[in-house]
Amino acid sequence: MGYQVRTITSAEHVAFNAARPSVSFLQTPAWAKVKSEWRSESLGWYDDRDQLVGAGLVLHRKLPRINRTLAYLPEGPVIDWGSDDLAGWLQPLAAYLKKRGAFAVRIGTPVVTRRWGTATIKAALADPAVTKLSDVSPDEINAAATRAYGQLRHLGWLPPKDDDGGFAAGQPRWVFQLPLADKSEDQLLKGMNQLWRRNIKKAAKSGVVVTQGKKEDLPDFHRIYTETAERDHFTPRPLSYFQTMFDALLAEDPDRIRLYLAHHERDLVAATTWVRVGEHAWYSYGASTTAKRDVRGSNAVQWQMITDAKDAGATVYDLRGITDTVDSDDPHAGLIQFKVGTGGEAVEYLGEWDLPLNKLLYKAFTLYLSRR
User: Fold this and answer.
1) Where are the beta strands (DSSP E) in the chain?
2) pLDDT tens digits for range 74-104
3) Are strands 140-141 and 174-179 parallel, antiparallel or unpaired?
4) Are 275 and 25 in contact (CB under 8 A)?
């Protein structure tokens, strides 16, 4: 079946997302307001009965001095990715965006390809002969993802490139998730490793108190966030970015985003942001102070977010990006070592795919990116 693609209102897009169990927060109309430097539009897929059956947020990034854009759908669109006829979904999208002046389309296929459970990850970390999780047999393979991969290649889409072990310019292909469905709080705690349980207990015994903050508390969060950035050698976002994010997401849903603050004797020792759409909750940004790290505020705030996600009806708590390295000599290995302590699983998505609509401009664009 071929579908018709046309613009939809923000209200129609919000209603469509609300009827789904889970949609990436990057595919909400509110996210367009966060990324205001991009031109944006909400698109809908309509079937032959004129029913809205798919939706996507498109962000248009204009090329310098050329009136053409990269059309980007982060972690989207929301369509039937298990379909045996992805051409019917994606070709109308490409045709529409080409008419709108796009030289290429980039999609973030929200399709899980493989999963590795806690025991498998721990065994890989302990085996010096294993350096990549992708070389280890997964505990689950999604056949629908295999079909989607073949169809995308056949339709001319270019697969994601391995970049820095899984960290690329776009959204992460490798993430770490903690399943929450049908688990009690006690079961979740018992599923964590001994270090995590001990640190959560130590934080409570030390008097760490975790509370929800408000937008007015963002300067406090940002203060220790910039300290974290300096310590961990990454470029921090400005305070205005987080203020815009809170304004935009909360306007769409009063419980879309939360700020968590962990205090010890009036000192802020850790702070995080939490985002939820339907049954999926994400740990978004985190920060901690160098001082008083021994009171384990970071573990305390994570545990609070996990239990709050479960109470809010989430079935997945997403700790976001990891790489597939399990090599102890690789600095990225520490990330999966920390997250596997929660008792969750490593998840690989199909990743971000490009469709060049103007091959010359696309080649120039990729060359520009490679030299940045």
Assistant:
1) 4-7, 39-46, 52-62, 69-73, 102-116, 140-141, 174-179, 209-213, 257-264, 267-277, 280-288, 316-321, 345-356
2) 999 999 999 999 999 999 999 999 999 999 9
3) unpaired
4) yes
Domains, the chain, ordered by start: 4-109+142-159+350-371 (3.40.630.30), 181-314 (3.40.630.30)
What pLDDT does 162 receive? Answer: 61
3-state secondary structure of 181: coil
Amino acid at 239: L
Which residues does the chain have with pLDDT short of 70? 1, 162-169, 372
Whether this prediction's pTM lies above 0.85 is answered by: yes
Residue-wise DSSP of 242-292: HHHHHHHHHHH-TTSEEEEEEEETTEEEEEEEEEEETTEEEEEEEEE-STT
Q: Who contacts 367 (Cβ-Cβ below 8 Å, separation ≥6)?
A: none
Give the DSSP letter string of 279-338: TEEEEEEEEE-STTGGG-HHHHHHHHHHHHHHHTT-SEEEEEE--SB--TTSTTHHHHHH
